[in-house]
Structures are given as structure tokens and as C-alpha cells.
Specification:
Elements lengths: L6 E6 L2 E7 L1 H11 L3 H22 L4
């Protein structure tokens, strides 16, 4: 949840869409939360999986 508001938004003439979580923000958040350096690669890969699942939901239009 700490990175929920850190999604990159791409805009154009068609509107906008959420492209994905800003990876620099993710790294900073892991540091702030005290995630051990040895675990950060694994956490990053898990977040990428969650990101790929969340992306279609964030981009749903009513």
C-alpha cells in the first residue's frame, strides 16, 4: 500500500492510463520500511507480479 500512489500515469489525446509503479519510489520505500538489502530483489519481483495484476484493474473505465 505504501506505493499505491506512486504509479506512473501516461497521458495523451486518448486520455490517460496507469503504466506501472515508479521503481525508484519502490526502492526508496523498501529502504524506509527497513527491508533488508538481501530481500529487496525478491520483494521487487513480487511487487512486479502484483503490479501486473493490478494494472488492468487500475485502468478500468466505467
Amino acid at each position: 500500500m505504501s506505493c499505491w500512489n506512486q504509479w506512473r500515469v501516461v497521458t495523451g489525446p486518448w486520455g490517460f492510463y496507469y503504466d506501472g509503479i515508479d521503481h525508484t519510489s519502490l526502492a526508496s520505500t523498501m529502504d524506509l520500511l527497513g527491508v533488508k538489502k538481501s530481500k529487496q530483489r525478491s520483494v521487487f519481483m513480487h511487487v512486479r507480479i502484483l503490479e501486473s495484476e493490478a494494472k488492468p484493474l487500475r485502468n478500468e473505465r466505467e
